Amino acid sequence: xxxxxxxxxxxxxxxxxxxxxxxxxxxxxxxxxxxxxxxxxxxxxxxxxxxxxxxxxxxxxxxxxxxxxxxxxxxxxxxxxxxxxxxxxxxxxxxxxxxxxxxxxxxxxxxxxxxxxxxxxxxxxxxxxxxxxxxxx
Amino acid sequence: xxxxxxxxxxxxxxxxxxxxxxxxxxxxxxxxxxxxxxxxxxxxxxxxxxxxxxxxxxxxxxxxxxxxxxxxxxxxxxxxxxxxxxxxxxxxxxxxxxxxxxxxxxxxxxxxxxxxxxxxxxxxxxxxxxxxxxxxxxxxxxxxxxxxxxxxxxxxxxxxxxxxxxxxxxxxxxxxxxxxxxxxxxxxxxxxxxxxxxxxxxxxxxxxxxxxxxxxxxxxxxxxxxxxxxxxxxxxxxxxxxxxxxxxxxxxxxxxxxxxxxxxxxxxxxxxxxxxxxxxxxxxxxxxxxxxxxxxxxxxxxxxxxxxxxxxxxxxxxxxxxxxxxxxxxxxxxxxxxxxxxxxxxxxxxxxxxxxxxxxxxxxxxxxxxxxxxxxxxxxxxxxxxxxxxxxxxxxxxxxxxxxxxxxxxxxxxxxxxxxxxxxxxxxxxxxxxxxxxxxxxxx
Lengths: 137, 444
Hints:
- The complex is a heterodimer of chains A (137) and B (444).
- Chain A is mainly alpha-helical.
- Chain A contains 4 helices and 2 strands, in the order ααααββ.
- In chain A, helix 3 (97-104) packs across helix 4 (108-116).
- With 444 residues, chain B is of the alpha/beta class.
- Chain B has an 8-stranded mixed β-sheet with strand order 3-2-1-4-7-6-8-5, sandwiched between helices.
- At the A-B interface, helix 1, helix 2, helix 3, helix 4 and strand 1 of A face helix 2, strand 3, helix 5, helix 7 and helix 8 of B.
- Strand 1 (119-124) of chain A pairs parallel with strand 3 (132-137) of chain B.
């Protein structure tokens, strides 16, 4: 299937509004990044070593946290790969019709009728239990 | 009564944690958590996404010329489609389901007591498609009951469940069912929903959000081994696994989160299959988006409340990180709220030192870091996801909104939904009407 996208044609004004709003947000975002860089560079000019140190320390802590997280996640994934490399479970047989009928409170005959139907109507009581199955076709 | 008192206590604890931290330590500590929790999670999702791609996804063939996976034994696959007032959408949903290249399928549409012409449309479609079966529920029972009725009528043990307004890709059923056949411990597989509605800003932003955040979260959770939720719009289940956990709960507002937790608590694994594409309709208005996300947040809170007391036994240990992450995300929302509250109060009243919050916008350095990490996250997701959607790069222009949408929407919906669930736990039948499905479609 090709991508079944839906783009409903809208009036020019709302389209322009969306675009303009997004542009403003984009500029704001770039400004935020620019401010961050400028503030670091200004700090560098004022006192290169002493004032820049906390910034890099903070950055180093974040990076360290990311690295530690990554390490834990990957080690855990590797452990699971090793642990489950040999599948110890066997595929259990499909659930039987009798078990299903018991679960739904139906007789096996009614369940079989429902399974073979093309169109059926199911009635429930107020507690959500099946009261009646009516096969139409 | 005890349940209600317990829920109220949970709410009190969640509310008091940020205040307590501010009072004992400083308001700055609150802000550090507010600014850096998204960074922390973002870093984890980026690494998880890259690892999933590197270790698994890049080896998986994909493209126009690639044949669908061969299913051992050529088993029958039942595609279940619960429909509530889907008269407008159901024709194309059924047509897409019927167009699967894997041929041994039956499609079961469950008309959940619709108030529109869904019943007539479905009955007519059975003449066009002999493999289409229809189960009419005499009265509206809710999605969970409709799915259960579909499972009851299905002839196969392999169930693919999609929404009444979703279009399966041509090989989606085969891709999503394959892990169930290959791995005995897999009880469910979640697919890859792709957004169709792209007319408004709200619609376009969600395209980036689904790729950049939801796609990476699913990959990361799969790498970890447990999944917070399958996508209700496209997921496959083993009927035996469903029967073991009592099928879908009819009193949970999001049946997909609940069934994911029930299965995993019974030690059934959930896989993620990104090649199982399903084209979905999403809200294109802010009110529709709010309504939908509020329901999702409410569903998360309901599942949290249902499981928080019994999850701390050793046999459920693999779920602990998931519930911890949920707790921290909830505390993040309440911390952000507390910070804003203290900041506003601080403008008028002189607060004690610890409770004083000097600012609520990220400082320049944190802003820089947040910006870079957001860009990095989007770039990574784009590189991973572009093969599923050729023109995904186009959404780059709108992507600026995705952190705002995800985190701000998470913030407000969590605040409202969590409070609502804790104050008013329900235990009654969950029924809802879908929000708008794009501005070009009339809602139910």
